[in-house]
Amino acid sequence: MSKVKMKRQGFVIDMTPLVDITFLLLTFFMFTAKFKSEAESEQKFKIIRPTSSADTTKLPEKDLAIIKIAIDTANQNDTSYYYEVVNEADRSAIWESVKELSPEQRLKRQLKCDSTLLEALIGRTRGTNPNTRFAIDADKRIRYKYVFTAMDALRRKRATQFNFVTNKPQ
Amino acid sequence: MAGGGEALGSGGGKPKRGQKNSKRKKKKRIGFKLDMTPLVDIAFLLLTFFMLTTTMTTPQTMKMQVPPEIDTPVDVKQSELFTILIRKDEKLFWKAGNDPAQPLQLGELQKLAKEKNLEQPNRLITLVAIDQSVAYGNVIGVLDKLNQAEVDITKEMKGEKRERKFTVSNLTDEQRKEIEGL
User: How many structural domains does chain B have?
Assistant: First the structure.
């Protein structure tokens, strides 16, 4: 008599090595992850940074003010300045002290501004926190004159040392 | 699951409860099984999340210094001036002092800047004059070459203190005219 063939119900795989590897990768990505700042997730443009290889200093994480110069996606010919202060407390103090801002602009984490407002903001930043370092984060496709205007604003506010934000060459 | 086979072998009849328990050899449990599927599910979910949100390239910085605004112009010796000019079409030129401008390739810039600086260490002033409509990426390219030259120069000077004299400016009309036809 032949045995009654039992129908196999499901099967078991040893998932332990799989879990090992998965957790290894998981911890790796968790530790290396650096999240976008809130200001960055608000913005509608993408900055394609130029590359540089000589100076590889990392961007400081606090006491930093970033002047972003980007090509507006809506209007390709328009270039606008965005101003962001990384320190939360400094930012609200600066936003409060600049009179030209509207109440809703005060809520923004980064401000769209023209060159005069930019200069006022730089001045206020230096008054609020003199240790603030400045960085210009500009798109590599924009014309030099926009960067020059920003540099001139910094110069007039006596912030003669600043940084350009670049990327590592691939 | 495990007890199925033994129940048949323990003889006919219906054994009393207590007897059955005492006769049966206590099987030592070797290991145990844990259903890991939900664990793996969650682990993979988190893994994909972190993989997709991580950007590996962190931005780096390039230091820049501009001279402060001053009212009185400073006189500069022509012989100590090394100018790099960037034309509208992104072609490079260089001139030493009052000499006529000469075309320059980006690849030669590092070597040239090093040579010129070592001729007059700590005295030579490097000036980068840039046309307003040059793309910013090209400007950074030139500055990066000068920074690379700076590394070489500091190496060559062996411990001597290096003072960098360097500035950027707009291309003046005079300079523009000079390199226009070249």
Answer: 1
